[in-house]
Write a sequence for this structure.
């Protein structure tokens, strides 16, 4: 999958793209990520990308032209254009699974007070990562890239993806490692009984119990 991220702050992505699983996914060509500074598409002599809003009101607004030109230079019939905005549909695991099937994502990161409404005409999907306001779409776009990349075959183990939180609208079962007894808190015996069927039964039950306790809203959907 190819992902183009349109941002005026490409330096924000340095640590994210050069660490751990995402770094390896890029090295192994599972994903290709390009940072596109749309300031370079500004025709203004000072490379301006924002201006005051018509009608008055505080804050700067991203102008349409640099973003249009950047998208037009990248887009093909295989592209999905995503705008990161708190006004978008709230992101979830189901959307991540859907996006993983795409060949090419163009992700636009907004900034400042907002963006000129006409930018919406070149956007396929508006995505919010939650009901709060970030200083820009960069951190939100990293959430999209991270959650989609890990679903691409070969990025992490298939086993991890098969049994994880949100599959079937249930949280994941509790997991333990050594020691068996940590400060009097003991690992459930069934897990080292060697009885695979009982382990599976216990885990299935725990998924339901944990979801009931922590996310009853999910149970209604499952
Ligand atoms: N930009 C600012 N806030 C955002 C949010 N919650 N989700 C996506 N993009 C944003």
């Amino acid at each position: 999958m190819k992902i183009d991220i349109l941002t005026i702050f490409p330096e924000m992505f340095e640590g994210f793209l050069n660490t751990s699983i995402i770094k390896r996914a890029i090295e192994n060509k599972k994903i290709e990520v390009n940072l596109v500074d749309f300031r370079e598409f500004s025709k203004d002599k000072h490379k301006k990308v924002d201006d005051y809003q018509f009608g008055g009101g505080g804050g700067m607004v991203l102008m349409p032209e640099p973003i249009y030109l950047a998208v037009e230079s990248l887009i093909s019939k295989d592209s999905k254009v995503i705008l990161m905005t708190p006004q978008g549909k709230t992101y979830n695991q189901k959307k991540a699974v859907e996006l993983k099937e795409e060949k090419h994502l163009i992700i636009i990161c907004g900034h400042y007070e907002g963006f000129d409404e006409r930018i919406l005409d070149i956007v396929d999907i508006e995505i919010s990562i939650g009901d709060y306001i970030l200083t820009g779409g960069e951190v939100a776009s990293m959430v999209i890239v991270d959650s989609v990349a890990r679903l691409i075959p070969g990025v992490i183990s298939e086993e991890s993806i098969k049994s994880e939180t949100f599959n079937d609208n249930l949280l994941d079962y509790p997991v333990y490692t050594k020691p068996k007894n940590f400060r009097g808190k003991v690992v459930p015996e069934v897990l080292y009984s060697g009885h695979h069927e009982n382990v599976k039964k216990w885990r299935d039950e725990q998924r339901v119990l944990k979801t009931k306790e922590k996310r009853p809203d999910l149970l209604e959907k499952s």
Observations:
- Residues 75 and 177 are 47 Å apart (CA to CA).
- Residues 196-214 form the longest helix (19 residues).
